[in-house]
Design a protein that fits this description.
By secondary structure, the chain is α+β, with helices and mostly antiparallel strands. The protein contains 5 helices and 6 strands. Helix 4 packs across helix 5.
């Protein structure tokens, strides 16, 4: 039986609803836990938007996100084609950023830290990703977004 979280993760209107909050410059309501990623469609060249949960914030100018739907996620494929993007997080709105896919060793270190510092969030996210995608959280690609102040 699929959990509500896994079903919601596959519900387009639900996952797209926070985009309007960020575009209204109210992203600070989510603190630094969620971010709005604006990336360029690899075929269309048009701006695309997705709200993602941060797995780590190594410093105020970096965030790590997990591609819960793996390397086939559209935003992940778009960043692979063009790593230049914009990020809205906390009080920051649409800052220029660059994406970098983490190595498996870097990803493992980020997940170990996430598991240790936020055990409940890790359990929930892990369960939801595994139910929604049939992939263990330690097998999903991680992306670091970096920007300057």
């Amino acid at each position: 039986m699929t959990s509500i979280g896994a079903r919601l993760l596959r519900t387009r209107w639900f996952v797209r609803a926070p985009i309007a909050v960020f575009r209204a410059r109210l992203g600070f309501l989510f603190g630094g836990r969620l971010l709005l990623l604006e990336h360029t469609g690899r075929r269309s060249g048009r701006p695309r938007y997705v709200v993602l949960e941060t797995v780590a914030r190594p410093n105020p100018d970096r965030a790590v996100i997990a591609s819960g739907f793996g390397a086939q996620a559209q935003w992940f494929r778009n960043l692979a084609a063009d790593p230049h993007c914009h990020v809205s997080i906390g009080a920051r709105h649409r800052v220029s950023a660059v994406a970098r896919v983490l190595s498996s060793e870097e990803s493992a270190a980020v997940l170990d830290d996430y598991r240790r510092t936020r055990p409940r969030a890790y359990r929930n996210l892990s369960r939801i990703i595994e139910e929604a995608t049939s992939t263990a959280i330690d097998r999903v690609p991680m992306v670091e977004l970096s920007w300057s102040s």
